[in-house]
TrEMBL record:
The keyword Transit peptide does not apply. Residues 19-182 form the TIR domain. Transmembrane segments: none annotated. Keywords: Leucine-rich repeat, NAD, Plant defense, Repeat. This is TMV resistance protein N-like. Pfam families: LRR_13, NB-ARC, TIR, WHD_ROQ1. GO terms for molecular function: ADP binding. One of its GO terms (biological process) is defense response.
Length: 1229
């Protein structure tokens, strides 16, 4: 046998510990000391591994205390099992201690089976049986312990060296594994504080595939200063790789390394020339070479052609807290008093490792909470120099203009939309696009949800840079954003030419402040003014700096705009939520204005005709409810790109004048409920998006709209009076058309020209009777929605919609026929035909090979499905509930059963059942994705078709058979191994339920009045160990319940006898003694009656579980008012242990059932508990916890304050009633 590696044990991180030795060698000296073990020891030492080998210890029959301590202080154990290993009691005692350390401290055990079979070690056969036999006379009491250790060690993954194996190769593999484990537990700098590195390394190698040996791998790591780039790069290094001297010349590197596999780490690269000189090209190095570069500038990596790049992110919330605690508390567990302050500290650092280390170290050994709070105040108000110096390196390398862009963003614009930031700054900075890109490449800014974001510490650095411009005089700083600084400048009129931007935000909506506008005269270089809040001026504004380019003043409190607001350079005027009544009077110098935003100006009545802004590109007037018209001058804005008038509910008309909106792309008139007509807008030839949503008075749209060839989106939903569309349309780029709820729309035009249409919605077009045949040929259509078109009678006779994924015809109650399907319609995923009058489906339905959801609920005219249904191989859900005339299920799943009647229509088509049989062999029939079968209320009297289904749909997880007439279920139900949910409600003739699969989660048999027998294997189901230990269970069907819950609802069944603890009450308590090995997994059961009429709604019953004096779980379920007896079983596979239980003390499990809703109709008769795993120390006492009733009626938020005391005091009360209950016989109250 050769040397084979069985895969070493997983090397997850061990707990932090100062190990005396890296490796401890356990071996039988006479077998391997002079050969294998000696060679392994030598190779490990050469790699710098600290190895313990017991040459210096005197052997005896018992291991010394010194050796025990050595074992306990070693990280890795290499156990070399050889022929005579078990003959040494010394070796066996070593092994016992080694396995105990593995269990208690998580140390690593690497077994080597040296010329012995691993199974001989596991089962103590051959040499190991003989070795143990020699010790039976003197060490009989140790034999079981030694056997257990050998069995456990023999089950570990390791290496097996056969008699013909190559020792050198095996030793090399072992050394690599040891170095790999050590690399997880030690950094190159012997830094024990690394947190969050393992997850990043794992992601990095999984994402970038850096273990490819057939090519040269270049990985670029970038991010802001102090974020952990160098640490992550070092964590990639292995102990056995060569590192190149970075001072070698280019020619030396190319000549010497061209054929070698090497590792190169270039840290903190800031110039492209450095990369070109040291790692010029892929052809400089041998295959398998790994090159890692860290930099703050992503563009350097892009320019040099790095195909693998990784931006280092901050630590997660948990990782940040761990790193902070290590430095603030030196690994000690902090008291609860420090939790809030620790959370505050980590929030401030926002995952930045350097900041966490600095702040944690600074707070270390400071025990006064007030001092902690004061220090955090200081950090939050001013960035520490040691953190700022690291972060500012990136800023210092920027061009002057890019620095200005950075400071504008950090002080004013973090969190604003990307487009808004670019509009505002484009007129202020000539190199804006270059600057924004550079800041992104340096990770100084990022885009998140279409907004510009910045790390909090980076933002604080920007604030500090501006603050340092003038420590004592805010009026001499370039940007003002703190309220106190702005108030000081305006109060003292202390502004200066240095001020370039002001941002004043009042967070309290009730607060009003007054400013002196004369202060603006000293700020001649002011470019940006941003105000949000109730800010007024105590004097009339007579002056604003001419260089002002952008005014953003939300909640502008004056009724009109002073003429001085329109400066000659003004580009943007954003006055959202203003109190302006009339706009534009006297405003004539608006030549450069590109954006005007008056949204939500609720008292705006008029915009003057005299107001002109010929270069205006964006005009926002939405939610101005008192605006009745727009000036004619707006119709000639040739550069206008966006016009937003939505929710101008009193806007009646757009002036009838020539419109010249040549540049217009987006026009929104939605919710203009009084708008009656649309003028000719044929000049808007570039229009891409047009919305008339909820223009409820709109009767028709102008024919010119039909000629807008560049239109992409047209929204007309809820135009309830719209009767027709333009007769001729040429929307060749149209992708989305929404005509939902156009209840008077009677017809739609020819759509042949809309070849790019993807989404068409005609939902609730209740006057529509026919769909134009052109709809059936839209090759790019993805979704077609005709839901509740209640008068629709006819569809196109043939559908060639090869891109269609979703077709909805639900509620088309007059639709009787379904069209033929083209063979290329393989993309359809969802087909909803529920509540239609369709009588039959064409055999061509079999072409829908990707159909997943097929909804035929309430199709009362449908008798059968076509014989080609078995070709729907992707079918996942079939809904037939309420299709009361439906017959013949079997042939759907088995085409050899051919019930097709001699219908001339079916026989004439080329798609006969014989056609499909000839192409699909029976052995290929398999519905791999089929998970749900819904046959509720289908008037079924025989369910034998399930016998066929269990062989072809093994993935079926939910079967809904409620409200049918069958009397029995087939015995094959237990073969549905994926079945989780079985619904049998109101199957009034059903007499028994056969055995079910062990993984069943929910059985609902409410209303099954004839049911006399439950499954024989219900005990196996409820206590199935497989289901409890599995973490791969699919709970998707039980969306609103915690994972791990299984439940059964049965009629007229008492609590099963195998429930160990039962009581005639609605609450039960069982007491047990807890130790560290105690595990609790339980099932609960309750029997109760619900009175009343089923038409009067549902009663809500809850199951509450308290473990160790704490409300741990609460489950709820609705039950119909039906004068019925129910048995409800709830089983949780959750294992309770540990923190909520009192060690070595008596603890309680309390289960409480109550009617949460309609308690007057619910009578709880009996409840019980069944422990699905054995609980050590279980007390044989069952009690009724009367005293706790009162507290369950308290508000939920109040309960945790005194749960523990209440339950404990009640337990003492019960103990007093029964003095022998702790250790006595079972007693039930």
């Amino acid at each position: 046998m050769g040397s084979t590696a069985a895969g070493a044990e997983s090397s997850s991180s061990s707990p932090i510990f100062n190990w005396s030795y890296d490796v401890f060698l356990s071996f039988r000296g006479e077998d391997t000391r002079s050969n294998f073990t000696g060679h392994l020891y030598m190779f490990l030492r050469q790699k710098g591994v600290n190895v313990f080998i017991d040459d210096g210890l005197k052997r005896g029959e018992q291991i010394s205390e010194t050796l025990f301590k050595t074992i306990q202080n070693s990280l890795i154990f290499i156990v070399i099992f050889s022929e005579n290993y078990a003959s040494s009691t010394w070796c066996l005692d070593e092994l016992v201690e080694i396995m105990e350390c593995k269990k208690s401290k998580g140390q690593k055990v690497l077994p080597i089976f040296y010329k012995v079979d691993p199974s001989d070690v596991r089962k103590q056969n051959d040499w190991f049986r003989e070795g143990l036999a020699k010790h039976e006379a003197n060490f009989m009491e140790k034999i079981p312990i030694w056997r257990d250790a050998l069995t456990t060690a023999g089950n570990l993954s390791g290496w097996h060296l056969g008699t013909m194996g190559k020792e050198a190769d095996l030793i090399q593999d072992i050394v690599k594994e040891v170095l790999s484990i050590l690399n997880h537990t030690k950094s190159l700098n012997a830094n024990d504080h690394l947190v969050g590195i393992d997850s990043k390394i794992e992601f990095l190698y999984r994402k970038e595939e850096m273990y490819k040996f057939e090519c040269v791998n270049m990985l670029g790591i970038y991010g802001i200063g102090g974020i952990g780039k160098t640490t992550l790069a070092k964590a990639n290094l292995k102990y056995d790789l060569e590192v190149v001297d970075l001072d070698w010349g280019i020619n030396i590197i190319k000549n010497r390394l061209r054929s070698k596999k090497v590792l190169i780490l270039l840290d903190d690269v800031d110039k492209l020339e450095q990369l070109q000189a040291l790692v010029g090209g892929y052809d400089w190095f041998g295959q398998g070479t790994k090159i890692i570069v860290t930099t703050r500038n992503k563009q350097l990596l892009v320019s040099h052609g790095f195909d693998k790049m990784y931006e280092v992110q901050g630590l997660s919330k948990d990782e940040a807290m761990e790193l902070f605690r290590r430095h603030a508390f030196k690994y000690l567990q902090p008291s609860s008093n420090y939790l809030d302050l620790s959370a505050r500290a980590t929030r401030y650092c926002t995952g930045h490792p350097l900041a966490l280390i600095v702040l944690g170290s600074f707070l270390c050994d400071r025990s006064d909470l007030a001092e902690w709070s004061g220090i955090l105040d200081g950090f939050e108000n001013s960035l520490r120099k040691d953190i700022k110096d690291i972060l500012q390196l990136s800023f210092d390398g920027l061009e002057d203009e890019v620095k200005e862009i950075f400071l504008d963003i950090s002080c004013l614009l973090v969190g604003e939309r990307v487009s808004y930031v670019k509009k505002m700054l484009s007129e202020c900075h000539l190199i804006l696009d270059f600057g924004i890109t550079k800041l992104k490449d340096l990770s100084l800014i990022r885009y998140e949800d279409d907004r510009v974001q910045m790390h909090d510490l980076i933002k604080q650095m920007g604030h500090k840079i501006v603050h340092d411009e003038s420590h004592d005089q805010p009026g001499k700083r370039s940007r003002l954003w703190l309220e106190k600084d702005i108030l000081e400048v305006f109060s003292n009129n202390s502004g200066s030419d240095a001020v370039k931007a002001i941002k004043l935000v009042l967070t309290d909506p009730k607060r009003v402040i007054d400013l002196d506008p004369e202060a603006f005269r000293s700020m001649k270089n002011l470019r940006i003014l941003m105000v949000d809040g109730n800010v007024r001026f105590c004097k009339k504004i007579k002056y604003l700096p001419n260089g002002l380019k952008w005014i953003k003043w939300h909640r502008f409190a004056h009724p009109s705009l002073p003429s001085c607001f329109i400066t000659k350079d003004l580009v943007g005027l954003d006055l959202q939520h203003s109190f302006i009544t009339n706009f534009g009077k006297g405003l004539q110098n608006c030549m450069r204005l590109k954006l005007l935003d008056l949204r939500h100006s609720v008292i705006l009545k008029k915009i003057y005709e005299s107001y002109t802004a010929p270069n205006l590109e964006e005009l926002y007037l939405s939610n101005c409810p008192n605006l009745k018209t727009i000036p004619k001058s707006f119709l000639s804005l040739r550069k206008l790109v966006t016009l937003d008038l939505h929710h101008c509910v009193n806007l009646k008309k757009i002036p009838r004048s020539y419109i010249s909106w040549e540049a217009l792309e987006d026009l929104d008139l939605s919710h203009c409920k009084k708008l009656e007509k649309i003028p000719d807008i044929s000049s808007a030839s570039n229009l891409r998006s047009l919305s008339f949503e909820q223009c409820t008075n709109l009767v028709m749209i102008h024919d010119s709209i039909g000629s807008l060839t560049k239109l992409v989106t047209l929204k007309l939903q809820n135009c309830s009076n719209l009767k027709k569309l333009p007769r001729y349309i040429s929307w060749k780029f149209l992708q989305d058309l929404n005509l939902s709820w156009c209840k008077k729309l009677e017809e739609i035009p020819d759509f042949s020209s809309t070849s790019n249409l993807k989404h068409l919605s005609l939902e609730q077009c209740t006057s529509l009777r026919v769909v134009h045949d052109s709809i059936g040929s839209l090759s790019k259509l993805v979704s077609l929605n005709l839901e509740k078109c209640s008068y629709l009678e006819k569809l196109p006779s043939y559908l060639k919609l090869k891109s269609l994924q979703n077709l909805t015809l639900s509620g088309c109650c007059k639709l009787e026929t379904f069209p033929e399907i083209d063979e290329n319609m393989k993309s359809l995923y969802i087909l909803r035909l529920d509540s239609t009058a369709i009588r039959e489906l064409p055999p061509s339905i079999g072409y829908l090979t990707h159909l997943y959801m097929f909804d035929l609920k309430g199709c009362t005219n449908l008798i059968s499905l076509p014989c080609t249904t078995h070709l729907l191989k992707s079918l996942g859900e079939l809904h037939l509930s309420g299709s009361s005339r439906f017959e013949m299920f079997s042939y759907i799943w088995d085409p050899t059963i051919n019930p097709v009647r001699s219908s001339s229509k079916i026989m004439e088509t080329s798609l006969t059942s014989e056609f499909f049989h000839s192409r699909v062999p029976k052995e290929s029939l398999c519905f791999k994705h089929f998970t749900l079968l819904d046959l509720e209320g289908c008037n079924i009297s025989n369910v034998d078709f399930l016998e066929i289904l269990c062989n072809v749909a093994s993935s079926l997880s939910s079967i809904l058979l409620s409200e049918n007439n069958f009397s029995s279920l087939p015995s094959c139900l237990h073969k549905f191994m994926s079945l989780r949910n079985l619904e049998l409600r109101n199957c009034k003739f059903l007499q028994e339920i056969p055995n079910l699969p062990l993984r069943i989660q929910r059985v609902d048999a409410t209303g099954c009045v004839s049911l006399s027998r439950s499954p024989d294997n219900i005990v196996d189901i409820i206590s199935s160990e497989h289901i409890i230990s599995s973490e791969q269970i699919n709970f998707a069907w039980l969306r609103n319940r915690p994972r791990g819950i299984r439940e059964f609802v049965l009629m007229n069944n008492g609590i099963p006898e195998w429930f160990s603890y039962q009581i005639a009450s609605n609450a039960i308590m069982v007491t047990f003694q807890h130790n560290r090995d105690t595990k609790i997994t339980l099932a609960t059961s309750v029997t109760f009656r619900v009175d009343g009429d089923s038409d009067q709604g549902m009663a809500l019953v809850s199951c509450n579980i308290l473990i160790g004096c704490r409300l741990d779980r609460r489950y709820m379920r609705k039950f119909p008012k039906s004068a019925s007896e129910y048995t409800w079983l709830v089983e949780t596979s959750e294992t309770y242990r540990g923190s909520s239980l009192e060690m070595n003390d008596w603890n309680d499990v309390i289960v409480w059932f109550e009617a949460v809703k309609c308690p007057e109709v619910v009578t709880i008769r009996r409840c019980g508990v069944y422990f699905t795993e054995k609980v050590s120390g279980m007390q044989n006492a069952v009690k009724e916890p009367r005293a706790i009733y009162t507290y369950f009626n308290q508000p939920e938020k109040l309960r945790p304050r005194w749960y523990r005391d209440v339950v404990k005091s009640f337990a003492q009360e019960l103990s007093a009633e029964s003095a022998d209950s702790k250790y006595g016989d079972s007693k039930t109250k």
